[in-house]
Amino acid sequence: MAILKKAAFYTLGCKLNFSETSTIARDFTSEGFERVDFSETADVYVINTCSVTENADKRFKSIVKQAQRSNPDAFVAAIGCYAQLKPEELADVAGVDLVLGATEKFNITSYINDLLANPERRAVDGAEIHSCEIQDADFYVGSYAIGDRTRAFLKVQDGCDYKCTYCTIPLARGISRSDTLENVLSNAAEISAKGIKEIVLTGVNIGDYGKGEFGNKKHEHTFFDLCQALDEVEGIHRLRISSIEPNLLKNETIDFVAQSKTFVPHFHIPLQSGSDVLLKLMRRRYMTNVYVDRVTRIKSIMPDACIGVDVIVGFPGETEALFLETYNFLNTLEISYLHVFTYSERENTPAATMENVVPKKLRAKRSKMLRGLSAKKRRAFYETQLGNTLTVLFESENKQGYIHGFTQNYVKVKHPWDPALVNTLHDVSLCEIDEDGLVRFIFT
Q1: What is the per-residue pLDDT across 175-190, written as a single tens digit (0 to 9) for each?
Q2: 2: DSSP letter
Q3: Rounded CA gap, 209 and 250, in Å?
Q4: In contact, 214 and 220? CB cutoff 8 Å
Q5: What is the pLDDT of residues 232-254, one digit of tens each?
Q6: End-to-end CA distance of the chain, in Å?
Q7: What are the φ and ψ backbone dihedral angles of 129, each rounded to 5 degrees?
Q8: Predicted model pTM
Q9: Which run of H or of E encompasses 361?
Q10: 3-state secondary structure 164-228
């Protein structure tokens, strides 16, 4: 019998990366590899990289070193957004053998099997690079993540046609393009058949769904069509929209979620700034009045809905007055939590050459202020939910003697560890907020 080769995977970044890593890992399994944890000894280590934040770049080297400590002779491959944007930089990292760009990553098993069969090709002074021009990334590869978590991340869209001045994603992932409706529904049914209770729809710009289907700019189906079709797939208990641009979140989608059988009342809507001056500098496709309208619409028909917000602090030109404008805008808005990103300069973006750069210490101070506001907003939202009877999906990990779970509207709860609860849905009554900010409950 042939010796079973082992492969391990590490994912940096977003839900979309997790979905693609999971699909690529299944390709390895079908090629005869055994998937093992990244902390274990493997023959191949695959690192799916991210370029959104400076920290993700810096973490790459330490992850490579971790792989080398486990097995100095293993092949190490870098894929993903950072690998597309800066392949030479990753290839120069000691221990890296292979760097694959935006399209090549989906053929990684062919490259790896070739290297394993010809180990003498391992470069002494740098890794092999296989990277396309990003304009050639015009085809779509579907993917979904299961097994790693209680919920599944289902990719429905990739790439972006927006030109936000701070963002490298269009450079790393190419044009906006979508999966076919038939394939999304097939993947959703496949996930459901595996006993997964919740599916999170993910992509770079999912509200743009239907655009660029295999390079065709015609919208054969819209995001609203997708939601309606997914709602009819049998066996799905919950569907969650991961993140959607405010200008693409239409009334018809909000109204549909409010009466849906499976879509939960949880929206994550990027804002980035509460200042119209900065939104224009960022080249966002809406102003703050549109954002207020979306939040008001959601809360008017779903008072218990959870609304998460992405916001960037320290963007060039952000004066103290403009930052306070953002802070006060968020403070008065009926939202539930913030994801705060401290602006970091990214090469080949217009923002990187803008004037009026905000000092890094000031960026950090403002970030801390918004994270404090987020904690306040989350607690205030949780307090509105005390006494409500909601449905919890329990997670799979034992964390310091507790099992955690999320209600349909994204309230995080805790309960003494009970393995029988893993991946099950239960109606509970929310009782009190614990000192760690999580909610205790009683079963109903």
Answers
A1: 999 999 999 999 999 9
A2: P
A3: 13
A4: no
A5: 999 999 999 989 999 999 999 99
A6: 54
A7: -120, 130
A8: 0.90
A9: helix 360-385
A10: CCCCCHHHHHCCCEECCHHHHHHHHHHHHHCCCCEEEEECCCHHHCCCCECCECCCCCCHHHHHH
